Structure formats: structure tokens, C-alpha cells
Amino acid sequence: MPLKLLLAAIMFFLLTPFAYATLEAGVAMREITPQTPQRMSGYFSERISTGTHDPLMAKAVYFRQGDTEAAMIVCDLLGVSEGITARIREAVSEETGIPAEHIAVAATHTHTGPLYYGVFRDLFHEAAVEQHGEDPYDPAPFVEYLIAQAVEAVGRAKESAGPVSLRHGSTEQHGLSFNRRFYMRDGSVRFNPGKLNPDIVREAGPIDPEIPLLMLRTSEPRTPLLIYTVALHLDTVGGTEFGGDYPAVVHRIVRERTRHVDAVFGIAPCGDINHVDVSHGEPQKGHGEAGRIGETLAATILNALPTLEDSSPPALAVARTVIEAPRQSYDLEELAWARETLANVADPAIPFLEKVRARAVVDLETRYPEHVPLEVQVIRLSSDVAIVFLPGEILIDLGLHLKNASPFETTLIFTLANGAPGYIPSTIAFEEGSYETVNSRIRPGQGEVLIEAARKMLYDLAKE
Predict the structure, then answer these.
(1) Which sequence spans correspond to the domains of the chain?
(2) pLDDT tens per residue, range 283-328
(3) Contact (Cβ atoms closer than 8 angstroms) between residue 24 and residue 164
(4) 149: part of which helix (H) or strand (E)?
(5) Which whole-number Å values give the CA distances from 252 to 57, 74, 246, 299, in the listed order?
(6) Residues of the chain with pLDDT under 70
(7) 311 in helix, strand or coil?
(8) Residue 305 carries which DSSP code?
(9) In what order do the strands lie in the sheet with 165-172?
(10) Which has the closest alpha carbon to 180: 440, 360, 434, 452?
(11) Under DSSP, is residue 27 helix (H, G, I), strand (E, B) or coil?
């Protein structure tokens, strides 16, 4: 080979250090179901757990290529606050050596998990201590347990890591998800207006039927891994039993029918998407409904696995930024009203949206005194595949915009990641109003700022 060509080949290899390096990955899971009865999250009333339908899990995925390491932890919880995310990252990094900024912490958004942080946690805890001198459902031990189990899961995932190949693609699921915001005959927009409501004109927005799929294939005896996202709220069960909702059903069925594949679920942008079909009057709540949805999704996913395509050579990289979003405003008079309203949150005479606004105001005062931090994090696995982590509950139009703008063929978007600052509506949704905007902490326009930051990050990673 001529010397000039040899030097060019050497320089190419040096400037693209991961082009020929093996991507290694590992997965591990640890149970995070509270050890004793606890308050449950997801609603505006106090619920005490009476048992466990299926265990809550923390699922960790570890990636390594050359000197670059990354990890993602997905927990069967309603959300994980910024403060607890920071503690998990610090503990995992100290134990494993993975840089804290390379660790993502996400929640599945199950509404049948423990209430362990936030306004209602503080409210119910303080009321119990005042009345009884102690809180029999003190959530503090659960936080320590969660952190310890997350550390254990990532540590085991790293220990189990070995060479993987990537296959990616997507499928679609119709008939399970519905936009829950509706234009009404009086000109308003309402969320969840009720089944067969004669005042409904039409849905106020789209759905996202696509299910992105990423398979990490391994050689035996290590477990292959499926990562997927679905744009559908996890609020199908209700009741007082802990459980993972429909993703737990998907995981069980995929595991049984493949005999060896673990499935890690991420909740895609779906702040205004749920499973309720208002065109009929049949009830849609309970474990039977979660089973119906999970079984349908599992069948769709399993049928799509043979269609996945091999990815381009792996190129692991991680990028992260934090936006200091302006928070919604309130005055001292509204703050006093909010605190009084929450003190009487069990009163059925108080309109629901007033309770929603009161909690948002107290949450702003407690957790976001200056601004609302919105973190964007991306793990690039190849020139074909990227995983995006966004905070809060992103409305569907923002999520679709980001996914359609992504330069990666397969883009998996995990929401409720690295923070839980409430809803992230689009400017149009803010103009229309209703629950999602009343329950937001940010000012109009900040959702678009978040999505643009994520889009730019994806393009910068695609250029490298």
C-alpha cells in the first residue's frame, strides 16, 4: 500500500475510535416494591396500598464502547424527582465509576406505585405526624431502598456486560390509544369529558401509533434485550395494589414466548393520550384492561421482531444539557389560597381544577423557587439509533415534532426522565387550556424550547 494511503487509513482509524470497537451491554433488574404498606401515587386523594398485584421493578441497561460508559435505569414509578435523580446518579457513579452525567433515570409513570416525594407526600406525611405523633407510612425508607436497588441493578448490569449487536425498527399499534383532549360544543377544550358525552365535537389532537424497537442481541448465555417505547398513559388499573400496569404484562408475555428476551419499556410523549375510548360506554379500568392492552401490544411487538434491521456500526456517545425554564407566576395571595385549598383537598365541593392549580402553585414554591430545570439527555448508539430522555409529561404534538425531525432512523424518546416537573404542553395547548396546562409548572413556549434543544443535540450527535 502506498505510504499516503496507509497514513490516511491510520488517521481515519484514529479519528473514528469507535467505528471498529465492540459495543458491550448488560441488563439487570431489581425489585423496588415497598416492603410495607405505603401511600400510593397518581391521584388527588390519599390511598394506602393493600397488596401487590405484580412487583415494581428497576431495570438497568449498561453500555460500554472503548472508554465510554453509559447507563439507563427505568423504574416502575409515577415519576422520579430531580433531587432523587441526582442522588441515584451520585450513588451509582460512586459504586460503578460511570460518569453521573452519563446516567439516565426514568419512570414508567405507573399510577399504582408509591407516593414518596412531592406536595401530597409532604401534606399527608405532616398531617399524620401532627395527628399521631408519627407517620406509619413514612416514605423516607423507600427512597433509601430505591437508591440502593438502583445501584445494585446498574452494578449487576455492568458485571454482566458483553458484546452485543443492534437491530432496530418500528411497528404500529392502532385502536388502543386516544387523545383525551376534546373540542366541546361550547367552544372549550376539555380533558376526559366522559364516555358518550353528547357535547364532544372532536379530538383536539393526534395520537402516535408508532412503537420504536431496539433489540440488543447477544450470544448465550446472556439475556438479549428489547427496548421499546409506547405513547400511552399508564393509568389503566386504579385500585390499591402495587403494580406495573400494562408494561408488566408485555414483559411477562415477551419473556414467556421468546423464553429469554427481557423487555424495557419507556413511556413516549403522551401527556394527552390515554386508553379511554369515549365512543362506547363500556368500563375500561382494572387489571383486565391492563391485560388486554398488554397482550395486544406484546403480540404486535413479537410479530415485528423478525422485521428489524441490522444497525450501522456502533458509535456510543452521550450528550446532556439543562434548560432553566421560566416558571409560571403566582402572587402571595394565590399562594395562601393554594395552601388553604390543599389543606381541604379531600373536600368534594372544591372543583378538581382548583385542586390541580393549588398543587402546582405549592409545588412551584417548594421545588422551583426560581426556575424549572428541564434536562435533555441523549445516548447515541449508532448512526441509526438514538435514545432521548426528556423530563415531565410531554404532550403528543411536541413529541411527534421531535421524532419527525430526528436525523436518526430510530429514535426512542423516554419521558418522565431525570425529573418530574409536571406537564410540558405546547403553546397551542396553553391557548386552549384545561388540565394539562393548569398542571404545568412552565410558561408557554418552553415546551418548544425543550424540543428544539433536543433536536439540536440529535443533529450535533449525528454529525460527529
Answers:
(1) 17-176+205-323+376-420
(2) 999 999 999 999 999 999 999 999 999 999 999 999 999 999 999 9
(3) yes
(4) helix 140-159
(5) 13, 16, 10, 12
(6) 1-20, 219-223
(7) coil
(8) G
(9) 262-267, 225-230, 210-217, 165-172, 309-310
(10) 434
(11) strand
Pairwise CA distance, residues 117 & 421, whole Å: 12
Q: What is the pLDDT of residues 138-177, one digit of tens each?
A: 888 999 999 999 999 999 999 999 999 999 999 999 999 9
Q: What's residue 140's pLDDT?
A: 87
Nearest to 70 by CA among 86, 48, 45, 93: 93
Report the DSSP beta bridge partners of residue 25.
Answer: 63, 162
Label residue 431 exposed, middle or buried (CB < 10 Å: 0-12, 13-18, 19+): exposed
Pairing of strands 385-389, 103-107: unpaired
> And the C-alpha cell for 11?
488517521
Burial class (CB in 10 A: 0-12, 13-18, 19+), 231: buried
Q: Which pTM value belongs to this model?
A: 0.94
Residue type, 308: L
Q: Classify 14 as helix, strand or coil.
A: helix
Give the pLDDT of residue 223.
62
Place of cell 360506554: 281
Hunting for cell 414508567 — which residue is that? 108
Say if CB 104 and CB 72 are below 8 A apart. yes
- Given a contact cutoff of 8 angstroms between Cβ atoms, the answer to whether 448 and 430 are in contact is no
The rounded distance, in Å, linking the Cα atoms of 425 and 400 is 13
Residue in the structure block whose three cell numbers are 398543587: 359
Cell 401527556 identifies what position? 271
- What single-letter amino acid sits at 73? I
- What is the identity of the amino acid at 162? G
Number of residues that make up the chain: 464
Name the strand (E) or helix (H) holding 303: helix 287-304
Mean confidence (pLDDT) of the chain: 93
| Cα 48–Cα 51–Cα 55 angle in degrees, nearest 5 | 115
Name the residue among 453, 460, 456, 435 with its Cα closest to residue 391: 453
pLDDT at position 464 is: 84
Q: Decide the pairing of beta strands 103-107 and 68-75.
A: parallel
